């Protein structure tokens, strides 16, 4: 602490905060072993994860301050500060590995957090740890990342192919529905034309019926009149106001000529 204070008060303060977090992490994992309830263990593990996240932030801040002052400090001091940073990274990675062990033990599904990605955590994928890896380890890690990338690309291609297939099926279904709608529209046009033709035919039949009714009414009146005349003639054959109907008038009496003998 005192050596860091001679270089920078800010570095000394950051180093003190990181040391406090490491002590809290150590005590927290020791306490975790004594907890029997799985839910309480999960909550304790989440709390420790938050402390590791804060520790990671402080280590990055430590690295930032060192880079900002590297032109104003000698090479030995700079090397000491980088070694201090690497020591912090390794200690934090040990707690990250311990956390994963407890996750597996508790059956907690792996979640993507600050310690799982290549750009977030201080695990083996982290750039801060790369400086402490050998060339072979870096090559192996690079090959692993390339394999993971190829797998991700293959999965993406599969998703794209499935999406294209779904789009093709959807387009075919839409085409069938469009053709079906066209047939329905044509059927509606045919029905409408038939209805108009039927309405016209009904009107013509109505007019014809009306004409037939007039003729029937006239015939009925004529027949009724004839019946009335016949009835009156039969009842009162001497009625001179009603003219004889041919074929129905009673026979005329024989008239004698003037001067004929009786």
From TrEMBL:
The chain crosses the membrane at residues 215-235. The keyword Mitochondrion does not apply. It is a single-pass type IV membrane protein. SUPFAM superfamilies: SNARE fusion complex. Residues 143-205 form the T-SNARE coiled-coil homology domain. Residues 38-72 form a coiled coil. Keywords: Coiled coil, Membrane, Protein transport, Transmembrane, Transmembrane helix, Transport. This is t-SNARE coiled-coil homology domain-containing protein. It comes from Hibiscus sabdariffa (roselle).
């Amino acid at each position: 602490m005192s050596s860091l204070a001679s270089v920078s008060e800010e570095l000394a303060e950051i180093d003190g905060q990181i040391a406090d977090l490491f002590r809290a992490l150590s005590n927290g994992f020791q306490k975790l072993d004594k907890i029997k309830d799985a839910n309480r263990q999960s909550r304790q593990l989440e709390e420790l994860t938050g402390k590791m996240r804060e520790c990671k932030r402080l280590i990055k801040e430590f690295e930032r301050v060192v880079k900002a002052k590297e032109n104003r400090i000698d090479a030995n001091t700079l090397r000491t500060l980088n070694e201090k940073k690497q020591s912090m990274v390794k200690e934090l990675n040990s707690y990250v590995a311990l956390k994963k062990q407890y996750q597996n033990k508790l059956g907690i599904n792996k979640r993507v957090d600050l310690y799982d990605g290549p750009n977030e955590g201080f695990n083996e994928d982290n750039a801060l740890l790369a400086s402490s890896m050998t060339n072979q380890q870096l090559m192996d890690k690079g090959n692993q990342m390339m394999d993971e990338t190829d797998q991700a690309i293959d999965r993406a291609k599969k998703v794209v192919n499935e999406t294209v297939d779904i789009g093709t099926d959807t387009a075919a279904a839409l085409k069938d529905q469009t053709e079906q709608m066209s047939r329905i529209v044509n059927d509606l046009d045919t029905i409408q034309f038939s209805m108009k033709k039927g309405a016209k035919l009904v009107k013509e039949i109505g007019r014809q019926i009306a004409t037939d009714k007039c003729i029937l009414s006239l015939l009925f009146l004529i027949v009724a009149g004839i019946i009335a005349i016949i009835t009156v003639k039969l009842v009162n054959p001497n009625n001179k106001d009603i003219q004889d109907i041919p074929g129905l008038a009673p026979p005329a009496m024989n008239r004698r000529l003037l001067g004929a003998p009786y």
